[in-house]
């Protein structure tokens, strides 16, 4: 297995491939063909989000333990939502919370990074179109989501999609540990075998609705234990085989003012 990182390096923004703790610069296109070049010292690089998607497709209520926690019936088909690419930030970048929005939640998710243009892909061929897996924090303004009755605004704020630290290529996503920690305390503790719809099933379903292009991310849902954060907290999402994605939480700069239509926080 190789892990692909996107880094700010002396030579510009590049990708690096990591095997057994050794990092080499990537020469070529990670979505086409590439080879591994000279070794670099990881401490000299700044880690960025490993991919820049054209769109992020979320899947709601896709873990059995989450459905049990919410006392909801298992869905008959995936529930899709969209998150804009402008929400993406990389490892160690801050999640900026709008203080007027009320409760804001972390949501640990395994992200499926598309590697080839995919349209009407059958489940049996899904992994032919997947580059690899990553970790994502699907940050959600919960009070806004409840008040709006739909998820678009609640999940669309800038910085509400930390992604990283890498794309794990060749990782089997059927039974991976997935965790979320807030200030070092574990809040989510599950495994991807709890998914209601598997990764191949999600690729089939989503690609029947919209064309997926290289770099797009499908968020496979969040397990039980999603909950609130506030400025001053630190959130870490850990996916087995991918690694840890850590984000500090800060108050958003509201110098431009809040929208006049913004609702007050619900209890």
Task: Please give a quick description of this structure.
With 267 residues, the protein is mainly beta. Helices cover 11% and strands 42% of the residues.
How would you portray this structure in words?
The chain is mainly β. It has two domains: 2-48, SH3 type barrels; 56-251, Fumarylacetoacetate hydrolase, domain 2 (Alpha-Beta Complex). The protein is built from four helices and 20 strands. Strands 1, 2, 3, 4, 5, 6, 7, 8, 11, 12, 14 and 17 form a twelve-stranded mixed sheet that branches. The radius of gyration is 18 Å and the shape is globular.
CATH superfamily of the largest domain: Fumarylacetoacetase-like, C-terminal domain
Overall spatial form? globular
Helix share bin: 10-25%
Q: What is the count of distinct domains?
A: 2
Secondary-structure element order, as H and E? EEEEEEHEEEEEEEHHEEEHEEEE
Biggest sheet statistics: 12 strands, mixed
Mean pLDDT: 94
CATH fold annotation of the largest domain? Fumarylacetoacetate hydrolase, domain 2
Number of strands: 20
Secondary structure category? mainly beta
Strand content: 35-45%
Low-confidence stretches: 261-267
Helix run count: 4
**What's the CATH class of the largest domain, please?**
Alpha Beta
Distance between the termini: 46 Å
CATH architecture tag of the largest domain:
Alpha-Beta Complex
Q: Rg to the nearest angstrom?
A: 18 Å
């Amino acid at each position: 297995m190789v892990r692909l990182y996107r880094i700010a390096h002396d030579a510009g923004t590049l990708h690096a491939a990591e095997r057994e703790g050794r990092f080499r610069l990537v020469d070529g296109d990670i979505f086409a063909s590439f080879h591994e070049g000279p070794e670099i010292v990881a401490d000299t690089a700044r880690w960025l989000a490993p991919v820049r998607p054209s769109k992020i497709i979320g899947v709601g209520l896709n873990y059995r333990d989450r459905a049990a926690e919410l006392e909801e019936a298992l869905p008959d088909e995936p529930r899709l939502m969209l998150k804009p690419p402008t929400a993406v930030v990389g490892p160690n970048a801050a999640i900026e919370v709008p203080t007027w929005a009320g409760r804001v939640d972390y949501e640990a998710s395994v992200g499926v990074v598309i590697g080839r243009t995919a349209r009407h892909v059958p489940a049996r061929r899904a992994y032919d179109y997947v580059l690899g897996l990553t970790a994502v924090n699907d940050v959600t303004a919960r009070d806004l989501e409840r008040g709006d009755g739909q998820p678009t605004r609640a999940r669309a704020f800038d910085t509400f999609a930390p992604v990283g630290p890498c794309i794990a290529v060749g990782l089997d996503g059927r039974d991976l540990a997935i965790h979320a920690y807030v200030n070092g305390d574990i809040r989510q503790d599950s495994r991807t075998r709890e998914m209601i719809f598997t990764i191949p099933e999600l690729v089939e379903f989503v690609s029947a609705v919209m064309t997926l292009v290289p770099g797009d991310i499908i968020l496979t849902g969040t397990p039980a234990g999603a909950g609130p954060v506030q400025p001053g907290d630190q959130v870490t999402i850990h996916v087995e085989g991918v690694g840890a994605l850590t984000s500090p939480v800060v108050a958003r700069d509201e110098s431009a003012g809040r929208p006049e239509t913004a609702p007050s926080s619900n209890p």
